[in-house]
């Protein structure tokens, strides 16, 4: 066999084995997701959303509960070979039906499963918060980079029509020069045994879980990166729910333009709100980041106007999110909410905790 022909055959064989080539091979085939963690979000919210997707499909499930995994697989027509446990998860590398692993586990397991997925040659969608520390986020980004795989964080607000319209209007100057953003996110956490209240599994309290929505809102509504943060925690430590993690935490972010964001998260009230105030008007969303039923108003010259039915990128925010990563895998572009975006938030989250602990403003721009 001549050398050129041998090289052609070898490179064709390598191409056939590479997951990227597999995707490129049949450009319009929906890519397969493996859902890791069949809890509330993975099983009840994400899995049903594949019916709304154009480019994504359910290809496997990963669970510690074999009976549940078998039942969910049967409900969605998955073969037995597409069911994994946490112990044999790494063998997912041999499953060509799985292109992307979606990590829907407690926060402290995000890093481990993202890194294992990347090492198995799979792209990763990881739920928020990205992880429980900056160090974990950096390790996740490095693992995905080393494996040449995409990493996206499940920040669904970036695919939610009202939030997208609010960002567009804010950038277009609808409210004038942005002076102030306020955002509060919380719910009543009633179950003292919930993993969200165990620091080793959650990494922290309401800030890790709901505060990331307020923090994200402050960043995407202003379009700026904060330069300083001042935080204060308020937790009733005699409440059996809050022996390990915080209940309420408030923080103020200062932005280079002079804009201020006043944010809050809590486990003792239902709150879901974003407000932007500029020198010409206001943009308000309430509820702001729910799965559905979000609402938005524009205020100008003392008059309020409700914005209804802005267009979104998918049938639902979840479908838009799932299909976005597929399109990124196909085209090679970076997800709009990449691992770096999750890392930026985690740097601020660590500074918020530090500010609350030390009772002082923490600079985020390296200045003393
Ligand atoms: P959940 O408790 O309902 O589900 C967690 C799953 O992880 C369960 O199936 C559980 O069995 C499994 N698990 C594996 N190892 C575990 C361990 N050591 N301890 C406890 N559970 C373990 O939680 P959830 O509400 O589905 O949250 C999962 C992730 O999804 C979290 O990171 C959360 O922040 C995120 N989430 C995101 C949204 C969103 O809107 N983007 C909404 C809800 C949850």
TrEMBL record:
Keywords: Oxidoreductase. One of its GO terms (molecular function) is oxidoreductase activity. Residues 32-155 form the Gfo/Idh/MocA-like oxidoreductase N-terminal domain. It comes from the Bacteria. Pfam families: GFO_IDH_MocA, GFO_IDH_MocA_C. Residues 173-363 form the Gfo/Idh/MocA-like oxidoreductase C-terminal domain. This is Gfo/Idh/MocA family oxidoreductase. It comes from Sphingomonas desiccabilis.
